[in-house]
């Protein structure tokens, strides 16, 4: 069984890319990196969501977080608050494979990227699509991708520019193991998106994988994670969170809260958390 799942509707491009690569025999790690990078650097439509053209921070700089986790080796590679690089997921892959460390941040992450042959781009070239467009069209800004290849290897990856106007150096849940992503070849993988400052202490991706390990379907595991958060924060207001999961059998599922800050700002009705999926069945 081969399968691919991604967060939000723009994740469809990542799933299509993953399908192409998984069907041509690529392994999950490659397929996940290529899918993330395709969306990060998507020149086909002129609309960018993550990576190039993501939301600037409070100082007007694009500062990206990205991570990959391999469910077979349990190796983890992440870059956080990385400036000047349009495809942070590619740097995260290099951290996973070519660095003795798992996480590199800020200047250190950029220094590492340079040592790996990446080019630091000018800020103007990284503001390729107007954040205004992204805000008003209701696009979300975190891509989570999970891929399962024919050998049974499952990999999760994420890429985000984080919260728009964030404090320089701020990191959310997305590039943290157990937070924005988790993968284990014995069970499956999960990835989540939403309000990272609120999400972070709940470790939703780890919890979803553990629940699948206890026998829940991916859908039931995702719903259970969201319900537990809702119960735990009651009577405070629920925050924005969406989670996708894929088992090593290729079964998928997702759940989300019925709240999205962009819709509140723009006065749009939110119809639920969209995600994209493909499997070879
Ligand atoms: C963050 N979780 O940095 C990300 C933002 C996000 O859709 O997922 N937006 O907090």
TrEMBL record:
<dbReference type="InterPro" id="IPR029055">
    <property type="entry name" value="Ntn_hydrolases_N"/>
</dbReference>
<comment type="similarity">
    <text>Belongs to the Ntn-hydrolase family.</text>
</comment>
<feature type="binding site">
    <location>
        <begin position="170"/>
        <end position="173"/>
    </location>
    <ligand>
        <name>substrate</name>
    </ligand>
</feature>
<feature type="binding site">
    <location>
        <begin position="193"/>
        <end position="196"/>
    </location>
    <ligand>
        <name>substrate</name>
    </ligand>
</feature>
<dbReference type="InterPro" id="IPR000246">
    <property type="entry name" value="Peptidase_T2"/>
</dbReference>
<protein>
    <recommendedName>
        <fullName>N(4)-(Beta-N-acetylglucosaminyl)-L-asparaginase</fullName>
    </recommendedName>
</protein>
<feature type="active site" description="Nucleophile">
    <location>
        <position position="142"/>
    </location>
</feature>
<dbReference type="Pfam" id="PF01112">
    <property type="entry name" value="Asparaginase_2"/>
</dbReference>
<dbReference type="GO" id="GO:0003948">
    <property type="term" value="F:N4-(beta-N-acetylglucosaminyl)-L-asparaginase activity"/>
</dbReference>
<dbReference type="GO" id="GO:0005737">
    <property type="term" value="C:cytoplasm"/>
</dbReference>
<feature type="site" description="Cleavage; by autolysis">
    <location>
        <begin position="141"/>
        <end position="142"/>
    </location>
</feature>
């Amino acid at each position: 069984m081969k399968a691919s799942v991604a967060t939000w509707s723009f994740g469809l491009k990542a799933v299509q890319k993953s399908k192409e690569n998984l069907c041509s025999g690529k392994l999950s790690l490659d397929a996940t990196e290529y899918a993330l990078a395709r969306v990060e650097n998507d020149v086909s439509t002129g609309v960018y969501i993550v990576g190039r053209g993501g939301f600037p921070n409070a100082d007007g700089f694009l500062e990206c977080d990205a991570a990959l986790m391999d469910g077979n080796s349990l190796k983890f590679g992440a870059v956080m608050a990385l400036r000047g690089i349009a495809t942070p997921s590619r740097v995260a892959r290099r951290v996973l494979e070519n660095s003795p460390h798992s996480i590199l941040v800020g200047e250190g992450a950029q220094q590492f990227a340079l040592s790996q042959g990446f080019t630091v781009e000018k800020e103007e070239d990284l503001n390729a699509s107007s954040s205004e467009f992204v805000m008003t069209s209701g696009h979300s800004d975190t891509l989570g991708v999970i891929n399962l290849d024919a050998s049974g290897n499952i990999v999760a990856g994420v890429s985000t520019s984080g919260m728009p106007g964030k404090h320089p150096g701020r990191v959310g849940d997305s590039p943290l193991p157990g937070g924005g992503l988790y993968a284990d070849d014995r069970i499956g993988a999960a990835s989540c998106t939403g309000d990272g400052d609120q999400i972070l202490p709940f470790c939703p991706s780890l919890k979803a994988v553990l629940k699948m390990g206890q026998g829940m379907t991916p859908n039931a595991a995702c719903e259970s994670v969201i319900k537990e958060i809702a119960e735990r924060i009651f009577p405070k207001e629920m925050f924005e969170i969406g989670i996708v999961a894929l088992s090593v059998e290729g079964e998928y599922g997702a759940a989300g809260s019925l709240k999205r800050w962009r819709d509140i700002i723009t006065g749009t009705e939110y119809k639920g958390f969209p995600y994209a999926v493909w499997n070879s069945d």
